Fold this sequence. Notes:
Layout: H1 11-21, H2 24-31, H3 38-48, E1 67-69, E2 72-74, E3 78-80, H4 93-104, E4 108-110, H5 118-125, E5 129-133, H6 139-151, E6 156-160, H7 170-175, H8 185-192, H9 195-203, H10 232-241, E7 245-251, H11 254-261, E8 267-270, H12 284-295, E9 301-303, H13 310-318, E10 323-326, H14 328-360, H15 377-381, H16 385-397
Parallel strand pairs: 3-10, 4-5, 5-6, 6-7, 7-8, 8-9, 9-10
Antiparallel strand pairs: 1-2
Bound molecules: flavin mononucleotide (FMN).
Amino acid sequence: MTQHKSRIYSTEDARRLARRRLPRLVFDFVDGAAGREIGAARNVSQFDNVMLQPRVMADVAQCSSATTLMGQSYKVPFGIAPMGMCNLVHPKADKSMANAAKAMGFPLCLSSAASTSIEDMARMAGSHAWFQLYFGASREASLAMVERALMAGYDTLVLTVDVPQVSRRVRDLRNGFTVPFAMTPQAFFDFASHPRWSMSTLAAGTPRPMNFTDGNGSNTFDRGASRSGADWAFLEVLRDKWPGKLVVKGVTSPTDASRIRGLGIDAIYVSNHGGRQLDSVPPAIWLLPLIRDAVGPDFPLLFDSGIRNGEDMIKALALGADFVMIGRPTLFALGAEGAVGLNALLKCFAADIGVVMAQLGITSIDQLGPDVIFENTASETGHSETRTQAALRLAAKT
Ligand SMILES: Cc1cc2nc3c(=O)[nH]c(=O)nc-3n(C[C@H](O)[C@H](O)[C@H](O)COP(=O)(O)O)c2cc1C
């Protein structure tokens, strides 16, 4: 067994260490959410209300966490969610994620608002890189970005549709967080009191949204601009123009999900943006079985929002996801310890999956379904009837 060189054994470790190492402005950008941040907290806490039913005496000596999604094989059932400006937490964040994706055989979704360009990420992560599109200044500007992704060799495009307008995130407003940075006295003090971060990050060059530059190299990113051009008509145009796999991210309504499926989209990415857009959004794990119900048993579903360990991943896979994506935990780990922290946390997740599968008496990911969910969940919690009923409906179908 290789030595664990990190202080990170869980997302909670990573978050605690990141909170210490990062300037408040940066930590809050990652950790914060919309409104009173109740939706974000509920995403996480509702996983605790889903319980799993152990099964004994199965032969689980040969256990595999490999899976397929949209015809592609992956060694693990998880990837990294698109997140803007990752190099804010560590100057080599994007590079470290690309290396981890290649080493562990999972997809890494580059955000439109990334601090690494579409072309550089394609060079770093090769076929492991997906590209996430935010509708930009206009339809033409958005399609130009899509064209860049195509030319750079991406085969999977993820259109994010749950940010018609960036929400009010109180911590960012209070901290004066802007992209690119405005060096206010408050920010100066914040950076000065975190010299390790400041020396490495600012020395490497202040991270910028690298996909938004004009011909003169000036930044054209407007974080507050409306992205509501990502409408049904645009989705149809995109389907027409994008020859590869097309995924729609940020879907929480079964009705929307059915309609998206009808447009020939390859997969739906169930997500409430980690509670960063609407505080009163239902917890994502509640929505998942309802959307599985709406799109049928075989349609590819990805999931994020609230995943904090491998056990959570197993719950999401059992409740209807084919694949899960990790958001904040990766940035906490990178912020805490760079590549060492990221790799340590990802290994914890992979190890969790193997151990939990063994406890459930299963040897492959495709054996996960509603029957591994402890049926009494609803009466135990009093809050999860909808999810459990949906899970049971699903179970009755299979
Ligand atoms: C710092 C940060 C930046 C994000 N930027 C994007 C983005 O550019 N595009 C996008 O589709 N989602 C973005 N997201 C949302 C994530 O893809 C994902 O849906 C969310 O983090 C899941 O919630 P969780 O981190 O609580 O698990 C961002 C999330 C965070 C934390």
